[in-house]
Amino acid sequence: MLLTTSLEKVKGVGPKTAEQLSAARLFTVGDLVDFLPYRHEDFSEVVSIADIHPGKMTIKARCEQIATRPVRRGLRLTTATLADDSGKLQAIWFNQPYRETQLKNGEFFFSGEFEFNYNKYQLTNPSAEKVSDMPVQTDRFLPVYRSIKGLKSQLVRKILAELRPLMTMLPETLPKAIVASEGLLARSDAILAMHFPENSDDVRTGKERLAFEELFELLLASQLNKQANAQLVGWHIPFEQSVVASFVKELPFDLTAAQRRAAWEIIQDFEKATPMNRLLQGDVGSGKTVVAGLAARQAASAGFQTALMAPTEILASQHAETLSKLLQPFGVTVGLLTGSVKGQARKTLYGQIARGTVHVVVGTHALIQETVQFHRLGFVVIDEQHRFGVKQRQELLKKSEHMPHLLAMTATPIPRSLALTVYGELDVSILNELPKGRKPIATKIFAPTSSPQLYGVIDAELAAGRQAYVICSLIDDNPDNDIKSVETEYRKLKNSVFGHRRIGLLHGKMKPSEKDEVMTQFANGELDILVSTTVVEVGVDVPNATVMMIENADRFGLSQLHQLRGRVGRSSHQSYCYLVMSDSSKPSQRLREIEKSNDGFYLAEVDLKLRGPGEIYGRAQHGALNLQIATLSDTKLIARAQKQAKWFAQSGQNLLEYKQLADQVKQYQRLTTLN
Q1: Which residues are CB-contacts of 591 (< 8 A; sequence separation ≥ 6)?
Q2: Domains of the chain (ranges plus CATH)?
Q3: Which of 31, 122, 142, 317 could cross-link 26 (Cys pair, CB 3.0–4.6 Å)?
Q4: What are the C-alpha distances in Å from 250 to residues 62, 253, 360?
Q5: How far apart are CA 52 and CA 414, in angstroms?
Q6: Which is it for strands 427-431 and 277-282: parallel, antiparallel or unpaired?
Q7: Which of 665, 457, 489, 465 is nearest to 582 (CA)?
Q8: Which residues contact 6 (CB under 8 A, 6 or more apart)?
Q9: What is the tens place of the pLDDT at every residue in 183-239?
Q10: Contact 402, 424 (CB under 8 A)
Q11: Which helix (H) or strand (E) holds 580?
């Protein structure tokens, strides 16, 4: 049997089982071998009935009596009396009448949860395997697999037991020198340790080996991307001190030390022979656009155009407005290209871009259309870059004769471990200071019963001339849940609590022109309260807004809550963020964390531990991150894998000698590169 053998040819896999495995994208023997458990339960200690205690237990017993009866429609209860030489106990199963036939004769291992139910102690839904059958899921460390619809875990374990001999012969996928120097298990031993562990040490060493391999693949891809980037020829944009100095002098505020440092790093990259490949990460309100504007000013002075691509029209418009104010005094023109720009205005803008009379072009996906031709594109800025796919970024970069300098910006602070792995080929600049005069946002959790008191607090802030956001998560009422919809909340506040205030409504289903009109009214101070969905998460800058009230805050992710909170606190006025729970239960860890900290980088680390890399990295790209075992919070293992990835990349070894490793590394190279 080979790893490429179809699962249909494995003993115990019939047509129906094969169909269910296929639905889970498990087609071959190799797919199932790599289908690793996400946790293990310890049923290795067999106790006598007399010594049993609450928790996960394994006993060796015989079934003395068993019967099945209907309890209610769709539910049948099987109860049994199990006995050994020390005593008896009751076991129950739900909708498993076949147990009556299975447990007629012989001695069995029963593994399950011993708990107090229905006013008595009993073993609930235990697995049962005959002692004489060499059990695969009792009397052992039991692997727990991701559920496959319609397929019992017990059957998955039995199929894997058929593949056990093959697992002992799995080829090594890492260079042997790395396995030896890191003291890792061979791959075959690690796979066996995960599927058939004897004890907790097996699980630990198996996980260490496989997690190291996953991280090594990702880090090696980054190293190879970095080497490839070093071979590219970019535009030389010389540093002109007078140009930069005049830009800084004209600013109506002082740059922070972090902004100065990031800008200098970019200017130095402009002068190198290879194109810049830099990630600018800064918390909400840290001033990334100003840094990009300074760089665009330098590029324009040297005769190069800048393209800034943003994920939404609102954000693109915001950037265009900000950059126009910064650059117009120097004769640098800024154009805005979005889906809303149509007809003759669009054709005119195309011509200006092609002739080079527009120096900075800000836009959405519209920038990557074939009809957009640049005169001399030297600098590309991609904002909230994790919201774009790899192909979209590459399409924009292709619009230049040479590879342009690339600055990726994100307002989602990226944990150090994620930056080392997923963004390993990038140079990173960090804006970890807020502009002078900004005050930390006061954040507080409220139970829904406290809403009347909270409305009074908000109204006092409005009376002082400030403005407020009220955020809801759904647009329409949904009778199946209690999440407040934005339209219901809007009507309620308008018709009762805040009837004396000017209230606007904003959500994603509105036409772009309608959204722009509402946002303009709010920005101009014509509205006191904006009731909105999360469309205000990015791209809205209203310094006079000092209150952020988030309904059903426990339904939002930590990163999203922090992004929403960043819509306020954008002036010298004290700002407030009120997190209203959906019920009066105990606040979750993520709510307690955001209540105590305004530090986006700290919260990003917490978010990574709570949710994993998916949301942080971005839906468009993270789907192919094949991390079943590794956690990106394991900085020690990341450091070990990074050291070996650097050694391998610089040693001149042939990656193609390791086919499986090469395939995964090439996939990661395509996935993580920004150009």
Answers
A1: 445, 553, 554, 561, 579, 581
A2: 45-139 (2.40.50.140), 241-272+287-410 (3.40.50.300), 442-597 (3.40.50.300)
A3: 31
A4: 87, 9, 19
A5: 48
A6: parallel
A7: 489
A8: 18, 27, 28, 29
A9: 999 999 999 999 999 888 999 999 999 999 999 998 999 889 888 888 888 899 999
A10: no
A11: strand 576-580
- C-alpha 244/C-alpha 354 separation (Å) is 26
Phi, psi of 381 (to 5 degrees): -115, 125
Spatial separation of the C-alpha atoms in residues 304 and 291, rounded to whole Å: 17
Q: Is the pLDDT of residue 418 over 70?
A: no
Task: Encode 441-468: b = buried (16+ Cβ within 10 Å), e = exposed.
Answer: bebebbeeebeeebeeebbebbeeebbb
From residue 229, alpha-carbon distances to 216, 233, 407 in Å are 20, 9, 14
Q: Which of the pair, 612 or 40, is modelled with greater confidence? A: 40
Rounded Cα distance, 529 and 494, in Å:
10
Is 238 exposed, middle or buried, given 0-12, 13-18 or 19+ CB atoms closer than 10 A?
A: exposed
The pTM (predicted TM-score) of the whole model is 0.69
The confidence score (pLDDT) of residue 428 equals: 85
On the 0-12 / 13-18 / 19+ scale of CB atoms within 10 A, 253 is exposed
Residue 521: which of 535, 537, 496, 502 has the closest Cα? 502
To the nearest whole number, what is the mean pLDDT of the chain? 86
Mind giving me the DSSP string for 60-117?
EEEEEEEEEEEEETTEEEEEEEEEETTEEEEEEEES-TTHHHHTSSSEEEEEEEEEEE
**What proportion of the chain, given as a percentage, has pLDDT over 90?**
46
| Both tokens assigned to 430 | 């960090």
Contacts for 379 with CB less than 8 Å, ≥ 6 apart: 237, 270, 295, 296, 299, 304, 305, 306, 307, 404, 405, 407
Strands 75-84 and 87-94: antiparallel
Contact residues for 325 (Cβ-Cβ < 8 A; gap 6+): none
What is d(CA 207, CA 438) in angstroms, rounded to the nearest whole number? 46
Region of residue 82 (phi > 0: left; psi between -120 and 50: alpha; otherwise: beta) = beta
CA distance 295 to 670: 28
Nearest to 35 by CA among 153, 150, 146, 149: 146
Q: Give the pLDDT score at 351.
A: 96
- The β-bridge partners of 362 are 308, 336
Q: Are 500 and 579 a contacting pair, CB within 8 Å?
A: no
Structure tokens at 651: 């040693």
| Angstrom distances, CA of residue 63 to CA of 129, 133, 659 | 12, 17, 52
pLDDT at 623: 43
Say whether 521 sits in a helix, a strand or coil.
helix
CA–CA distance from 562 to each of 283, 312, 500 (Å)? 9, 19, 30
CA distance 620 to 600: 22
Q: Given CA atoms 659, 663, 666, 668 in this order, what sign does their dihedral have?
A: negative
Decide: helix, strand or coil at residue 380: strand
Q: What is the pLDDT of residue 615?
A: 44
- Rounded to 5°, the CA angle 545-549-555 comes to 140
Residues 396, 406: Cα–Cα separation, whole Å: 10
- What span, in angstroms and rounded, lies between the C-alpha atoms of 120 and 457? 52
* DSSP assigned state of 455: H
Q: Are strands 46-47 and 55-72 parallel, antiparallel or unpaired?
A: parallel
Max CA distance (Å), the chain: 94
